[in-house]
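We now fix the convention by which a protein and its fold are recorded. These numbers are not coordinates but entries in a learned vocabulary of local backbone shapes. A record is reproduced here so that you can trace the correspondence yourselves:
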Amino acid sequence: MNKTIQTKRDTIVPATIFLIAYAAWAILVASENQFIQKFDQTVINIICNNNPAAIKFATTFTNLGNTNVIMVETIILVIVLAFCRKFAYAFFTAGTMIAANGYNWIIKHAIARHRPLTQHLVAAHGYSFPSGHSVGSATLFGILIVLTILLIKNKAIKTVLCIIWACFPILIGYTRIFNHVHYPSDVVGGFLEGIAFLLIGYSFLYHYYLENQRAQNNIY
């Protein structure tokens, strides 16, 4: 009984915390809170510059977070998992990505925040909050971190891969601010949303698959 309570805390509680944090952040953005305005301006002043090398990197690397690219990467990952007969992981990947990006579309239109008025360095359409690039990359690469932890046995390889996966959404979020197509608060909101849905998806994976698998292994 105590073990069951502990495992639920390990999965559901973090998901709830991030979901509440995301909801609070979204409310602050929607209400145009002064803290958000100061936060955005401070981060923009730190990140944005006219360095040609930085501009080249930001305008190129940001493409890795494009909706079409994330969608193709997700489909490939799901196919690979299904081919390897990791069907629970394939459903976890597909379900989490669909839920996160579907909810993101709803919130974008509900809050309807316009993008920064400064000149954009790359093409960007639609509303600003949350950053779709940030949601998609945080969710997808978060899924890759979970799959790496669960499926890779070599500790050194596991550590290196997790660091690499974690760097991608951070850098993509940076490029969205640098390219003037999102406010920093859009990126933070995207990360909070992506992580919240990742943890929710993992909770389902854990309680409906991993926990049962562990119980069966103990029986045999």
